Structure prediction request, 281 residues.
Amino acid sequence: MLDNLYSKRDIISYLKDKSIFPNKNRGQNFLCDRNIAYNIASIIPDNLSRSEYALEIGGGLGALSNMLYSIYKEKLMIVEYDNALYNHLKEKFDDINIIHKDILTVDICSLKNKYDIYGNIPYNIASPIMEWLLEKSYNKWNYAVFMVQSDFAQRLTAIENTENYSSLTLFANFMSYIKLEYNVSKDVFYPVPKVTSSIISIIPKEVDINMIEVFKSVAKTLFHNRRKTIKNNFINSPYLNINKENIDKILKKSNIDENIRGETLHLSKVIELSNIVSEYI
Prediction:
C-alpha cells in the first residue's frame, strides 16, 4: 500500500511495483503536495457552508481524497474510471463509496443529497465535465472546487472583447459564479505536466431551466464563426433555425448592431438576447 501519498519517491516506487503507468491521454498527473491538497479541501466559497456530502471526480492516488475523507468521513464518494486506480482507492479507503465509472455517466440527480464536488480535472474532458456539472447535475450540488489547467480557468473567467472569451465563458457564467482562487505550480505533480494549473471555485446560480438550451444555442451561435458579424452567425447558425426577417426583428428588439461580433457582448446582453430569441423559436 502507498503509505505516503505526498512523497514523489514513494509514488514512483509504488507505481512501478503495481505496473501503473500514468496515462497522458487521460491527463493523469498525480498531486504530490500535502499543503495544496489541504488548501483545496479547505476552500469554502463566500456565504456558503459545507454540505454533509462530497463527491470527488477522479480520486487518482488519493492525495486530495485523503484530505476530503478527514472532513466528510464516510459521506465522501469518489468516482474513478481507471481500473488500477479504482482498485488502489478501494484498498486505501475501504469504508467509503468508490464508484468505478466515467463521471459523465453518473447521474447525481437520482441521489437524494446535495454534494460539494471536487476534482483535478484533465484538460481533454474539462468542457464536458463543466456541462455535466452545470446542466446535467443542475440543482444537485452545493459548490464545486476544481483544479484545471490555467488556460481553461482563463477561458471560464474571461471578459468580453478578450481572446479567451467564448461560448463556454458565457454558458459557464450564465449557470454559475466562478472564482479563480489561485495558481498551482506544475512541480507539485508527478509526472510533471507541461503547464501550470489553477484552482477555481464554482457556485451554482438559480436559472430558468426552460432557458438553458436557448441560451446555449444563442451563445454557440454568437461564436459560430468568431470573425463574422452577429447577423451573419445567426443566418448561418446550425444551433438555431430562425428566418432572416425574424433575425432582423430580434436584433432590432435587442438594440444590437447587426455588424458587431459576438465577442463584444456582455453576459447580461446575451441573456437579454436569449430571452428575445425564445419568442421566435
Observations:
- The longest strand covers residues 141-149.
- Residues 126-136 form the longest helix (11 residues).
- Residues 210-280 form a domain with the Helicase, Ruva Protein; domain 3 fold (CATH 1.10.8.100).
- The CA atoms of residues 186 and 202 lie 22 Å apart.
